[in-house]
């Protein structure tokens, strides 16, 4: 299983996908809490750390790595995580991955121009 994109985890942890995204995030938390096939409950520390700082790419990467490692060790978890991932990636507002943005600014006088592709958080202009 490929590692889950940290940007997807950040979008869900940060609430940029709305109420549906919150439900998906809650289902990931429930999935992580499930007992391993060996009987131990799942460690939630990386999940909690990202929830506390949803814009932190390092924490998102750590969570993605932990999820991938657990999926390699536990086939049942891998299957459930793959289903979760399909649902999360299908959710509007969680688009990640490759893509181009082409902005053209011409004519007149512009005072503020913002060019962006994926924004995770607020953009505030002026006072």
How many β-strand stretches?
0
Structural class: mainly alpha
Uncertain regions spanning at least 5 consecutive residues? none
Distance between the termini: 46 Å
Query: What best-fitting shape do the alpha-carbon axes yield?
Result: elongated
Helix and strand succession? HHHHH
Average pLDDT confidence is 80
Q: Quickly count the helices.
A: 5
Largest sheet: none
Cα radius of gyration in angstroms: 17 Å
Binned strand content: under 5%
Helix content: 40-55%
Would you give an account of this structure?
The chain has 127 residues and is mostly helical. 51% of the residues lie in helices and 0% in strands. It is built from five helices and no strands. The longest helix is centred in the middle third of the chain and has 17 residues, at 57-73. The mean pLDDT is 80.
SSE topology:
Blueprint: H1 6-13, H2 18-33, H3 45-52, H4 57-73, H5 75-90
Helix pairs in contact: 1-2, 1-4, 2-5, 3-4, 4-5
In short:
With 127 residues, the chain is mostly helical.
Main attributes?
127 residues; 5 helices; 0% strand
